[in-house]
Amino acid sequence: MHLLTRPFREGWIEETDAAMAALGAAHAAELRACEREGRFPAAIYREMAGNGWVGTLTPVEHGGLGAGPTEYCVVAEGVGRHGLVTPQTAAQGQRWLLEWGSDEQQRAYLPAIASGELVFSESISEPGVGSSFKQMRATARRDGGDWVINGSKTHVNLGCESGLTIVYVMVDGQLTSFLVETDVPGVETTHTHPIGLRMVPTADVTFTDVRVPAGALLGEIGGGMATFLTTFNLSRLGNASELIGLARRALVEATDYARERPVGDGVVTDFQAIQWKIADCYDALYAASLARDRALLVAEAGEDFSLETSLAKKLAIDAGERVSQEVFALLGGHSLYREQPFEQILADIKVLRVAGGSHEILRNYVARRVLKSASYEGLR
Description:
Blueprint: H1 12-26, H2 28-37, H3 42-50, H4 69-82, H5 88-100, H6 103-115, E1 120-123, E2 139-143, E3 146-153, E4 164-171, E5 174-181, E6 187-191, E7 203-213, E8 217-218, H7 224-260, E9 262-263, E10 266-267, H8 272-300, H9 306-331, H10 342-354, H11 359-372
Parallel strand pairs: 1-4
Antiparallel strand pairs: 2-3, 3-7, 4-5, 5-8, 6-7, 9-10
């Protein structure tokens, strides 16, 4: 699978993929331990940051790689392909700061995020509400020159490990976002235990009379939906890329095994039924990769890519779920042990099916776009 867009430097994709493969192999035992234990591999994360893979979107003057959506997706796919810890929330934090942050906020946070020293999280979903903004109960109110935040959030990746979180709240009924340093009084975190993406463990985060200065406001009062959409349209391409990487890893490792596994006078891959499974998995990945690449072309051109990124993630979910199920036919009993990666790949893909826009939400959005368009989005 090869990207249709060009990276910011010739040869960077190949160099990055080789370096990510080497890092994943060098730290395989620790990465697997962190995955099993639900533990964030902070040292490996900082090593990734030293290679520019955490601060992909941060400008060079702030200590980042100074790249764009293409490089962000290369890293995301490499994470899935080579079993590394995802810097997804860091990328989203960079996007928020670059699009909406003040000069002071950018200077304070971007270099530390890019270096891996400052872990970023996003406090959006709420218990019993999810990410339905109309029902959001967290609030912020003015108190002198400060803001006071109250509310509870859930499904917060790296909520316990982060030093900075973005919090979505209601200000007089208007969706608004704030940047909150998590060591201030009133912030409490509790680890939760997801089935997948366990190297970026989740948490419940409670804000009780958390006082932040006026400078903590990100964007404008009532501008929460705008800040959300500018980041999540891009982050869905990161989700799609990680799904593609996970599925590639599963299919490559399963095919390598099946080509060598004796059955009678031949090997597993001599059977037509198995060959068809490989073909079906490959074409699903091919379609997902092309959709992701098309979305990147639109994004790099500076055009609206909401439809393209939704299609890309939907097709990547379809491919990921198909591959992660079908590889068990290639592997047989070899796949049924936790020493192998296939159970965890399956669980990671299930998490990404929901996180950042579920399969159902994506389908709804695509259908609305088609129905609202006079050309049915180019079909007519």
